[in-house]
Amino acid sequence: MVNDTEYIKQAEATRVRVLSEALPYIQQFAGRTVVVKYGGAAMKDSELKDTVIRDIVFLSCVGLRPIVVHGGGPEINSWLDKLGIEAQFKNGLRVTDAPTMDVVEMVLVGRVNKEIVALINQAGGKAVGLCGKDGNLIKARPQGQEGIGFVGDVSSIDVTILNTLVENGYIPVVSSVAADETGQSYNINADTVAGEIAAALNAEKLILLTDTRGILENYKDPSTLIPKLDIQEARDLIGTGVVAGGMIPKVNCCVRSLAQGVKAAHILDGRIPHSLLLEIFTDVGIGTMLVGSHFTP
Ligand SMILES: Nc1ncnc2c1ncn2[C@@H]1O[C@H](COP(=O)(O)OP(=O)(O)O)[C@@H](O)[C@H]1O
Ligand SMILES: CC(=O)N[C@@H](CCC(=O)OP(=O)(O)O)C(=O)O
């Protein structure tokens, strides 16, 4: 049986250890940009949503510069369903005809974006919602697959509006809709947008929150998490088929951003409460970290 003094000592030791462990990371990352892609399962559960939002506000409060890029695939599906429009996908991308494009834009830019903005503001942050059209942030071009409609790729990025906001203490929240030169709207995969923004800002980190632990040797077995790998190892995992399905575009987008100078890309389980803080501010980490060959620990 532990006496009271011992108990208090132990409890303090644990709390202080966690805080104290965070200090070198806070110092290392102060002033640095972290692009967080938020979507999928972590967005469906409202309690989890609150912890993700609090973590983002935490990052901002301790001096990092978070930029949020959000998805919302499941919410688009549910509105398409209500409107009697069938959701269709080709190689993981939503087939986007004109009526679907309208719904994607209304749901992502109107509903999901503003909800995240409001939640961040309620949690004490200062968020501003944008899509690719605002401040000419993203110019889109057709992705080019036959029969996929208004699915876009990032043609160019102008980060002026993001820098203006971040320098004034705002947290930009970006939805993945952008226009081409003619003003035509395009639906871009949110992971792709996050990767391109991270690269354009030369970010410290690109963090993709998803619904799996990270990259797994065997995707059915969570105990096979690969904690760290470099660009070549990541490419090999795609080549050998270990990385498959929806994980392929995620890994490709991490690899592309690393090749363009982002220091580290992380694939994390958004279902684990506070996975963002655990990955950034503790020695152990919690998901998969991908690094470029230039990385020195
Ligand atoms: N090696 C792997 N490690 C982890 N997940 C993998 C792997 N290979 C394929 N996957 C699949 O990729 C999925 C994640 O992609 P996706 O469902 O598109 O995520 P999101 O909806 O968050 O964008 C996982 O749920 C898993 O089924
Ligand atoms: C072209 C394309 O597929 N766009 C995605 C954009 C949203 C997204 O990426 O949402 P998640 O991250 O939640 O999947 C879509 O329409 O679903």
3D structure, described in words:
Helix content is 42%, strand content 21%. It has 297 residues and is an alpha/beta fold. It has one domain (32-291): Acetylglutamate kinase-like (Carbamate kinase, 3-Layer(aba) Sandwich). The chain has an eight-stranded mixed beta sheet, sandwiched between helices. β9 and β10 form a beta hairpin. α6 runs parallel beside α8 (247-259) and α7 packs antiparallel against α8. It is globular, with a radius of gyration of 20 Å. The relative contact order is 0.14. The structure holds adenosine-5'-diphosphate and N-acetyl-L-glutamyl 5-phosphate. The site of adenosine-5'-diphosphate (ADP) has 14 residues, from loops. InterPro entries: AceGlu_kinase-like_sf, AcgluKinase_fam, ArgB, Asp/Glu/Uridylate_kinase, Glu/AcGlu_kinase, NAGK-C.
